[in-house]
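Worked example

This section walks through a single chain of length 397. The input is the sequence exactly as stored; nothing has been trimmed or padded.
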Amino acid sequence: MTISVPLGFRFAGVHAGIKKNPGKEDLTLVHCEHGAVAAGTYTTNLVHAAPVVVDRGRTPSSDIRAVIVNSGNANACTGERGLADAREMTRLAAEAVGAKENQALVMSTGVIGQFLPMDKIAAGAAAAAKQLGTNETAFLAAARGILTTDKGVKVAGRTLELDGAAIRIAGMCKGAGMIGPKMATMLCVVTTDATLTPEAAQTVLSVAVEDSFNCISVEGHMSTNDTVLLLASGEAKKEPLSGKDLAAFQSALNELCVELARQIPDDGEGASHLITIEVRGCNTRDDARRIARTIADSALVKTAIAGGDPNWGRIVSAAGYAGVEFNPAGVDLAINGCSLYERGAPVAFDAKTVSASIKASRETMVVLSLREGTAAIRFWTSDLNAEYVRFNADYTT
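Given that input, the structure is written out below as tokens.
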């Protein structure tokens, strides 16, 4: 897809030597010369990385000029030295673009428990500043710089017309493993040339994240570094969005975040299926989310999909231990549009046909319907197979 880069931003991605492979970018710099409103959402893990501490203290903000991101090293569980290094990264980024330290944000991703090679990051920040560009090529280089075990870049873009002004939104994210609900081992930067107040930016981002990045899982392992940043330069439309314009922006941002979020479990390490789990008919969205998350994190459900096995009992029983009260006699279940279970009882179906539908497509659709209320949610996960086990068994050795 073609990405229309929002006005007011410059991007770069360079190889700083953090990763061993010299052909891979491992440091990204995003620059907003005239300052951007910034908002962020972060991991809910009690054990969180140093960059999360720094960014939480600086967002929401009305004047962020730079974001620096490194891959290959998470700077997590690194104590006071890690926190000092994260702050130093923001100083280096700010210095490289002529800004102040508190006008920069930082993200890191990679192996936990190792100290950053700050000499390489200093050189990388300076090199990245010299390569900053406003075109799609520069944007994609920046998108590559944040990757770890990802197979390729994860990007998305939207353009909408608001009162005669073209508003661009462009996002990049990373993540393939250690993905759990309520944020995951993923980083995301969304840029837009819309004008937003800090309060509005935080609100629209939080709403968008709730039904996108908070609705994905690979193995349910919550990370230490999860961060989603929204930066708004205000270059396309000077008046802050409000009313119907803000609602239209919210809708576009929601769509973009869902598109980005789905790419993460679809790229789950070793995954052969993206599984969409839709839970309907609950009393509350929290109930629906809890049931969907429990199904998504079930190793038995995930391995069944990997093998093309329509083993509906695993799905129904997972819903039953999710900790949500419901009437089991009111449960329906369908896989890829084929009904397997209705009103708490099995129905006749052709197992070979359903199995073939799972094996024939990378995406599998699971719909679980209750009769408790009207709340519903969609949740995305990946299957679980031998390749995932092999990959993660050998991750640091």
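What to look for: Residues 243-266 form the longest helix (24 residues).
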